[in-house]
Amino acid sequence: MNNPTLKQIASQLGISITTVSKSLKGYSDVSEKTKKAVIDLANQLNYTPNSFAVNLRTKESKTIGLIIPTLVHDFFSSVIDGILEEAEKRDYMVIILQSNEKVELEKKQIDLLLNKRVDGILMSLSNETGDFEHLKTIISHNTPLVLFDKIAKLVNCSKVTINDRKAAYDAVCYLIKKGYKKIAHFRGSYLPQNSIDRFLGYKKALEDNNIIYDPSLVFVCENNMDFEDGYENAIKVVNEHPEIDAIFAVTDLVAIGIIKYLNDVGIPIPKQIAVFGFSNWFMSSVISPKLSTIDQPGFEIGRKSASILFDEINLKKNNLPVVFQSIELGTTIIERQST
Amino acid sequence: MNNPTLKQIASQLGISITTVSKSLKGYSDVSEKTKKAVIDLANQLNYTPNSFAVNLRTKESKTIGLIIPTLVHDFFSSVIDGILEEAEKRDYMVIILQSNEKVELEKKQIDLLLNKRVDGILMSLSNETGDFEHLKTIISHNTPLVLFDKIAKLVNCSKVTINDRKAAYDAVCYLIKKGYKKIAHFRGSYLPQNSIDRFLGYKKALEDNNIIYDPSLVFVCENNMDFEDGYENAIKVVNEHPEIDAIFAVTDLVAIGIIKYLNDVGIPIPKQIAVFGFSNWFMSSVISPKLSTIDQPGFEIGRKSASILFDEINLKKNNLPVVFQSIELGTTIIERQST
């Protein structure tokens, strides 16, 4: 049967719609007898209120929205876990939307979340996102927004990131200290800030150690930085530059693609080519050889982003001023067999 | 600024709220002049309608809901991709909720989706789900529901599954044909139908090949069938039953945990113990030794489930009868190095 309306309940009981609505919300100015009659009939008719758990006085819906480029990724999975943990503590639900790295979808998803009146939004931007009007829409709607991982420097909101440039710099300096000299880099695409920063860290580490930067040793992972990107670019670099002795990959998934190729063609790791990843996905300690990487605290990034968002939701609810934060979490080098 | 109400727009223009509402929905019984005035003011005030893209006549919101136990899992990631592909074709958005294998959260999420008036719901049940009243709620609200993977036999709706029992039976028969005799099984928990069926397939394959079923060779993956389950149960089985020559794991992630342990302690695979997984996660062809497994068509399961759901949404919209389907997709054995 279709969802009954307040009007139907009112009509059946011979009372006003307002009284029905107040009864369902537990207003004190309605008699207990009336409230009971309304609730009993509502249950009997399987009535569902138009907005889940909406308290008419505070307009709070106990949901937040999360838009991420991809769900199925070593890093994002830990982030989601961190967000969900913070949300569950506060009895909030998280509506998750995947933008699939497409900015058009990202825009529609923002519209959806605003229309569903979520209390706040968490986002990591798509690889295609180059202008930020759609993000400013969230802010002009007075909905708290926290960006993490792939952020927009020009948008005025709280952000949680790692220092991608420093992390990449440390990774490449580590490789150089180990004696590697001809270091290739499999970078992410050109728009995302973290991809730009990891590349710049790589470049600076070479320069600071008097190694000439050679652009032909840099390969772009067009395929959204996944396993195939690693595998296919490994084929290219080994054929075009057999002299390389190490590869620094923008993510572990890419690095694992590299390792698969090198294993397939019998190139010893690290003896002939060392491999260094980024993010410390659990599989990096499972494959053979185990992958050296940057530990990227995904769970903590999720937890912290959500925590800041809930604080801002609360401050807004109480009409208190919000001071935006830019949090940078630390990273460490995890040394394993591949270097 | 806060989202303006219809009342504010009506008041500012000196017209009724009904006229404002009709103007925004494009009703033909409002003059073009009035419609334009309303739309211009609404845009100026950054008005967002209360329900995204809702057409008052058809009540269609172009969203469906998806509730799955976990996002970050070899199998579910392909399923999500299949669902998103079908949704994008039809310009639908998918609200994704993760139940985290908790039935209480699953129930709240169903309430949320019904309250947000999604057009239909796709679900794979949590490991804890033992009774199905909350699923029947969806049906009694006349919202199309399609279950996949972990389904409820007793709920009257369309379902998309694989024949878990046959797939497991084939897997174990394959192991027996290869000469393995003392085959352990790392099973899923006791409630999910697919876990029960994979166990029953294992058992029947032993019986049909005159191998006595030994319950002490069966270990339960309590940890939601993940990597740690495989690793820890492998420690147990190797210590308690060193005579085993093969392990059939309920998922690839569990199998990879087994392989890690056996590699760590130097037990040769398959020479001393063979390992067989389930689902054909991409990492199963990357690790060493490469994992034999059952190919479980995750993407196709997602695609088919979504496709059936959209058909049922359309039939319902046109007041046509719906005949529920139970689709069983085929699986194949992928033979690799681990057996």
TrEMBL record, chains A, B:
CDD domains per the record?
HTH_LacI (cd01392), PBP1_LacI_sugar_binding-like (cd06267)
Give the HTH lacI-type domain ranges: 4-58
For this protein, the record's SUPFAM superfamilies field holds:
lambda repressor-like DNA-binding domains, Periplasmic binding protein-like I
Q: Name one GO molecular function term.
A: DNA-binding transcription factor activity
Q: Which UniProt keywords apply?
A: DNA-binding, Transcription, Transcription regulation
Which PANTHER family does UniProt cross-reference here?
HTH-TYPE TRANSCRIPTIONAL REGULATOR GALS, LACI-RELATED TRANSCRIPTIONAL REPRESSOR
* Name the record gives this protein: LacI family transcriptional regulator
